[in-house]
Write the structure tokens for this entry.
Amino acid sequence: PSLQFPPLMNCAVELLDRRVVGGEGERVCLRAPGGLCWTYRDLLGHANRIANVLVHELGVVPGNRVLLRGPNSPMLAACWFAIMKAGAIAVATMPLLRAKELGQILDKGRITHALCAHALRGELDEAVATRPSVAHVVSFGDPSGAGLEAAMARQPDEFDNVATASDDTCILAFTSGTTGQPKATMHFHRDVIAACRCWPPHVLRPQPDDVFIGSPPLAFTFGLGGMLLFPMSVGASTVLLEQASPPQLLDAIGEFGATILFTAPTSYRAMAEGARERRLGAPLGGPLVKCVSAGEVLPAATRALWKDATGIEIIDGIGATEMFHIFISADEEHARPGATGTVVPGYRARIVDDEGREVPAGTVGRLAVKGPTGCRYLDDSRQRNYVGDGWNYTGDAYYMDADGYFHYQSRLDDMIVSAGYNIGAPEVEDALMQHPAVAECAVIGVPDEERGQIVKAFVVPRPGYGAGELLVRELQDFVKRTIAPYKYPRAIEFRDSLPRTETGKLQRFRLREGKP
Ligand code: 3UK
């Protein structure tokens, strides 16, 4: 990919203004339930009005940090582009965050302004109340028409874009990771464009007539790329859903004729039967052509289930907030069950030991990655501890095989050591998920006097399967027959649901702490 950038560049101009100037303003860009449909020209007009509000009414200057809060919607997308155009820094936050977490972000991110969906004002107002450093909070989507929409009506739909440097920071991306400690990474205007030039054209290969849809929030870089930037980078259209639970997503795929789907492994698992009944896969005559999974490990059982239901081989990819988007992946023709894929053009990846030395193929070690989109932590000590010589240590245990395919084992802090054996929780989960009684499951190590740790599984049974001693023994025997017997769960507990982040990641640490 071409990764040379001019000294001055604004990612919003590259992705939005250029397309309209280039004569493609009438192409459909954003759609949403209820009939909303914006062309690229419409989105540009909205973003320009909001940028005018930011600069001329709210006093935003380049480098100001603007908090964004709202479920996925065209207005949220317009706000994001407006922040880029004004040369400010977007700090997008997950819709489910509470006042306490928003307060941490306001402080750490040194937020001066906020644009917030009307319905989500409550928690933000609570956090802002004790923080005079936040000068303005403006709502959008207020049914009375007050707030941002009223201000936009006073402003012209043209805006004098701020000439940002290509290495000006434009995004502060917060992630709670899998351990609950919030951390922030910085991304430049050029990172946004670099991300559009690496994984999408080499792995996803979208076309201008594709219709994107999916569940990840725009506040998660997986969603920002997949649901907004990548479709726009080829002039395609995207459907932004405020709510995208599995049944809602199934309905919307049919309604909008979506061709490219982005969601998390659990969502694929939950949607498989519905997708089969509705014949959503293109091989069965439906609209859906490509399906992308990221955010956490894709169990081979889930890949097989989805393929059987739709005829589509999922495109798996590991990405990280630190690296902006996906850096190891495989397209549908090169996918191998059990492997995430090979390194994406533009990136380098390797497996190292505890001293940072590269290990031979087949040996499990730490994943390190380097590329054009990262990694820069806001926090100096994190930068020292997790980034060395440009290599970011993602915190994942992986091995690379002789063909250059990377095989996920576990998060480093999730590795179970039982009686001297290293056991990756996902491998046991994958085995359990092949059993028809298992809807969802999570595996952790729990302390054990004799073995150090034992493997414990939390299982959400499928309706109709009795949760009891009989099923425990049945599942244990099943795992022993499926993978090496010493990996079987010596303890099994049944649950109604499992703790997950808003991005679909299992929170094994919460199960270890014994919290619900
Ligand atoms: C895990 C995966 C196995 C892995 C993300 C795509 O997930 C994203 O970013 P986060 O910062 O978390 C990063 C961590 O999540 N992970 C993600 N994808 C996979 N593990 N297989 C996968 N396919 O532990 C990684 O270190 O929340 C994903 C694009 C952008 C993203 N920000």
Observations:
- The radius of gyration is 23 Å.
- The chain has a mean pLDDT of 95.
- The pocket of 3UK is lined by residues 175, 220-222, 294-298, 316-321, 325-326, 340, 394-396, 408, 411, 503 (CB under 6 Å).
